[in-house]
Amino acid sequence: xxxxxxxxxxxxxxxxxxxxxxxxxxxxxxxxxxxxxxxxxxxxxxxxxxxxxxxxxxxxxxxxxxxxxxxxxxxxxxxxxxxxxxxxxxxxxxxxxxxxxxxxxxxxxxxxxxxxxxxxxxxxxxxxxxxxxxxxxxxxxxxxxxxxxxxxxxxxxxxxxxxxxxxxxxxxxxxxxxxxxxxxxxxxxxxxxxxxxxxxxxxxxxxxxxxxxxxxxxxxxxxxxxxxxxxxxxxxxxxxxxxxxxxxxxxxxxxxxxxxxxxxxxxxxxxxxxxxxxxxxxxxxxxxxxxxxxxxxxxxxxxxxxxxxxxxxxxxxxxxxxxxxxxxxxxxxxxxxxxxxxxxxxxxxxxxxxxxxxxxxxxxxxxxxxxxxxxxxxxxxxxxxxxxxxxxxxxxxxxxxxxxxxxxxxxxxxxxxxxxxxxxxxxxxxxxxxxxxxxxxxxxxxxxxxxxxxxxxxxxxxxxxxxxxxxxxxxxxxxxxx
Length: 482
What we know:
By secondary structure, the chain is mainly α. The chain has helices at residues 11-32, 40-59, 64-77, 79-97, 100-111, 114-132, 135-152, 157-174, 179-187, 192-220, 226-239, 248-258, 263-281, 283-290, 297-309, 319-325, 334-352, 355-364, 370-388, 391-408, 413-425, 435-444, 448-451, 456-471.
């Protein structure tokens, strides 16, 4: 009944859907492996959503309309991200077939020395991500090219993916163009550049340690892939018409980013520009992709459309390179989009029923001193990333939940904004069912749990936040002047 008083769920009751989610995901992943994303994980998320909703409706008198509205709002909140995913699929296909990525791989293999490759990879992605303000765009463009270079030089894909993601999320965390950076500062009512400057205290040491690790790993890597590099180069030359012309596309993309053109427009224009370029530089490939026996304007157009939305498989004469240059287009993003929608259902149900709030209040009990307060914020942010499966929701909930507590204990808002970014933004990509984890695993074709151990920046950042809180460096009370 609508007029019955709604009860707040207990922490123990609120924990049940989480336990169901984790248990079923463990079973599903063990049964299906990487194919779990093809439907198994989606079923698990909807099952956990049903458990949360059913318990709340039966025991806490939560009205279904409230749950339904929260789920709808959650899905609406990621609508732009879903369109971006589709455009990234189109972008990856068009950049590959037009020769943009093959050209970058070809020259990158000869210019980037294996000993410095991992560190260089991390730095390149850091710079690009700072300029773009988007880890997704960075990984979907230069990240794919760097992954190909790394594999050609004999590096394990997990190591390269870890370097790419570490660099991309450094930029996503500190760039004034980043939506997560702006969101964390606005939710906590901290001036944007005050927030960015304060983050450097934890971010610079974390990135320094990360680069040292990648440098050591690079020097330990035996550069025995010279033969593979030669084979890749020959196969690329044989398959694609390599020249500097394709580099016009990333150049135009960079200009649009510098001009702060919206992401949707930038990605769309870049994808269309690349596929038009393919019409002039790679007509044979478009003819092959179309499946038509004779070349004509219609067959080339068909090849262009398939490149944007569908799967492409090219025979380069090298099995490893075949896998690298294969693309999935917009259709290849559908499993990820399906998974994100199901994850938003779970996050919406947990929020509407009050279960998330009940669980996060448990962390507040441990906040007695500065270090425990920051540690509780980090733990809560990570927990919300796991439960809501979305970094934006997690940032908003973490900031709002701890805002009054930090104020009451006399700490500046910039401490909360920094801790929120350290806890939420960088860890979102480490969770298989989070929107970021799903997206990057799909783009790089490396499972989340495979690259996770090598995302050193993402792992070190929340720990660094707690360490800085323990030693109290640059942590001031509100009454103290800057």
